[in-house]
């Protein structure tokens, strides 16, 4: 039954590249075969709950601009949560995307106790379970919000108060139980305040040990309940903390190695966070695939004139092509997918704007995927890289990396042969021009 929020808007249809109707898919054709796989199965698009149904359009200098009925002051919080669920699944069906994602506090209000909060979350999960069965829409991942409430102002797992640590563990347990019940494909940990604001009051070693133990308990519980999905960490360098311990992929990998988790946890990588860390999106994706910890992505982009995480919808096709090139080289998604962790601009007030943003971004992503697939089929970009490092395939050079050499033996090799290596062009401009052929 329609909530009336989206008026008479019908499910978005694929109309092809010649369509000039902005409320049709021009490139996102879920049944199109790309590199032997349906486009829908490549991309595994997911709509997020928080930005679409929880964010009121506020910013640091102004209040809410989205006057949604389920956000009205004075309303019964659980009635509002039920209405929000109805609107959300109506939107999921209009978009025709296969997944959604949520934090526990997105879907249900916090109660006076954790038991009451958990009961609220589980009551909405009951509604989700029925709607998911009726529509076939799946849960890409669930997570717990351990950053909004003031109890978490000094972190959750890294909080100096052990009681906060215990509360966070109990909250995560329930969020994992709900994710398991809804057949979620992954469980994500986003350390909203797992970091520090000043070293004057911080013991980093203590906090890292706490975080390592917390994550080990998450992995232990995953195996105890038989959760088949991946545990994912989402790197973020700063905001709201001055420095966060999950700074970037490389930092998180070092943390995982230190606490014996490198084979248990993978990465959920966001473009906006990559930019905040001083990287490109493709850099973070490349690092994750090189280290064997690629899992999933949050799809958005930053405004490059602003110094914070602005969460625009991804519309830049050349950037997306390079991102999906890395994703395809990583073998593509298994349990992960493409989550629209993006929000409307606060001046985009109309319900149809929610639909339009996802449609436009899905088309840009589809174009990026197809361009990336053409790059792979063409083979010249990967072929150039392979050729550049081909010398390491020779037995005498491969043996160096296996430990079968020393400074002395290499010095002897250079001196006996009068070796004088000559530089070879890296051809950056050629490769950039090659990439542009496909976008």
UniProtKB/TrEMBL annotation:
InterPro entries listed in its UniProt record: Xyl_isomerase-like_sf, Xylose_isom_bac, Xylose_isomerase
The protein's required cofactors: Mg(2+)
Catalytic reactions of this protein: alpha-D-xylose = alpha-D-xylulofuranose
Enzyme Commission identifier(s): 5.3.1.5
Catalytic center residues: 103, 106
Binding annotation for Mg(2+) 1: 234, 270, 298, 341
GO MF annotation terms: xylose isomerase activity
Free-text comment on the cofactor: Binds 2 magnesium ions per subunit.
Residues binding Mg(2+) 2, per UniProt: 270, 273, 309, 311
Keywords, ordered alphabetically: Carbohydrate metabolism, Cytoplasm, Isomerase, Magnesium, Metal-binding, Xylose metabolism
Compartment annotation: Cytoplasm
Sequence similarity: Belongs to the xylose isomerase family.
Assembly, per entry: Homotetramer.
Record's protein name: Xylose isomerase
Organism encoding this protein: Roseibium porphyridii
Name of the gene encoding the protein in the UniProt record: xylA
